[in-house]
Amino acid sequence: MKTMKKTARFLTALLLALTLTAAELAPALAVTQSDIDALKNDAADLTSQRKELESKLSALKDDKSQAMEKKKLLDEKIANTAAQIKNVEAQIADYTALITQTEAELLDAQQREEAQYELFCSRVRAMEERGTISYWSVLFKAESFTDLLGRLDIINEIMDADQAVIDQLQALQAEIEEKKASLEASKAESEAAKADLMVKKSELDSQRREANALIQSLTANENETEAAIDGLEEEEAAIQAMIIKKSKELAAQQAAQNGNQTPSNAALGGYIWPVSSHYITSTFGGRASPGGIGSTNHKGIDIGRVGYTTEIHAAKAGTVIVSQYSSSYGNYVVVSHGSGNTTLYAHMSSRKVSAGDYVNQGDVLGITGSTGNSTGPHLHFEISENGVRINPLTYLTGYTLAG
Fold first, then answer.
1. In the structure, how many helices (H) and strands (E) does the chain have?
2. Number of domains present in the structure of the chain
3. In this structure, what DSSP letter does residue 369 have?
4. Where does a domain end: 202, 217, 232?
5. Confidence band of 112 (pLDDT split at 50, 70, 90)
6. pLDDT digit string, tens, across residues 287-306
7. Interacting residues of 313 by C-beta distance below 8 A, sequence separation 6+
8. Best exposed site among 112, 201, 297, 382 by fewest CB in 10 Å?
9. Residue 142 has pLDDT above 50, yes or no
10. Domain end: 175, 199, 217, which one?
11. With contact defined as beta carbons under 8 Å apart, do 135 and 49 qualify?
12. What is the pTM assigned to this prediction?
């Protein structure tokens, strides 16, 4: 009678221990399938935006009089593809994490299954060693009705424990099969995402070549080229007037806040290189029109050998007064350093700051690119002092001029 009680209690305690071990060993999920599904929903939105852009581009066809509008749409399409690439890369990273987690869970489940199977085998061996015991014979040996009820409770407890061992073993086997299927599905999805990533990167390269070639193609018609140049120079003049206005407004606000004291960063000079490259492809002032459509009176310097992934840093601390897109500058940012003192960074592939942001010297403003009136990746950089654009190379040294 005591042996039966000990057996029932041992089985119950062991089952509880196995359950607790499983709960403790199960790794906390850092990534779930729902995280990946959310990224896929974002990807679907990006695909929808891309189709809309392609529809607009198709409507323009080859009308060169709308070349700059087409370039703007191409820049937007390039940005969309870059966003899709970033999305797919995030999916791949999540799949990698999910696969690692699932492999750990699968190993844990297999270890728990082994322990549960050993418990099952031990139970069978114990019954074999004692010989087949008839539960009826146990009951018939009861010395009283109270003893009969007690024996019945113990038998029920043992039978429940035996069944629980079997149920738990079956549940673990089902869990293992589910983990294996989930693991294989995640691996397949990850490989598909990697293939998609290669396709999108190829598309991005092709789109960039098309956008750069579009600007170069305008030289084929002199009238169209002159009209485009006039329009771009007019836009640049309007942008400079807007910059001066915004810079003065900001200086007035800062002076009012500081008791009419000029902000410390308004002192002229003190600039650092905005990018890691110091290779100058076009200097300040008069020049031959690059690509047949660039300004012949260059208002800044062009820094080459930057590609599409180089970080652009604030040459000096200040407040962002412009962060937007224009046909001439593409994605560009303007930072005000005090009354009439500004720096401009143009043709970015993406902008990382918004108007109103305060940036320290060296903070990232965006990533280099070839948006707007550009025939290849570079950074167009301008410095204005007292509202007048000056040669940045007055302050930036250690550069190399393109041959």
1. 6, 14
2. 2
3. B
4. 217
5. confident
6. 444 444 444 578 899 999 99
7. 272, 273, 274, 275, 361, 362, 363, 364, 365
8. 297
9. yes
10. 217
11. no
12. 0.73
